[in-house]
What we know:
The chain is an alpha+beta fold. The protein is built from 2 helices and 9 strands; from the N terminus they run H-E-E-E-E-E-E-E-E-H-E. The longest helix has 23 residues, at about 1-25. The radius of gyration is 15 Å and the shape is globular. The N and C termini lie far apart (about 35 Å).
Amino acid sequence: MYTAISTKLINIAAAALTGAVxxxxxxxxxxxxxxxxxxxxxxxxxxxEVLVDGRPTFxxxxxxxxxxxxxxxxxxxxxxxHQMWYSRKYDNAPMPHSVFFKGGYAVHATNFVKRLxxxxxxxxxxxxxxxxxxxxxxxxxxxxxxxxIVIVK
Length: 153
């Protein structure tokens, strides 16, 4: 158990330090193009792999759109973020740690963790609350301009 927690903290710390290099211009004085986050969501696998500077850092189960609700595919930049958002469309459903990438579509936390790994959402990408908080923090540190959310079939 300690190994999993320690590894997670080390990964977050490494990502944060890399982000600090970008934000504060530490190091050789020139930020390089590698200071990026790419979140690759696979609809067929129901997973999200997060690459930090091209290195696989996290792999999480997700729930994307069910049969009646499509999750858009493509490459997106975050357009807005909310620590807590309530869906106006779906009865004020809570959407903690929301990173919106297209209109009303977001990567966000869910309380329906038993459904992770299978399609279950209205089109958003749902994550375990801990993972959504980690992803939100990474996007805050690196910035939306340095983040891509890539959704593939």
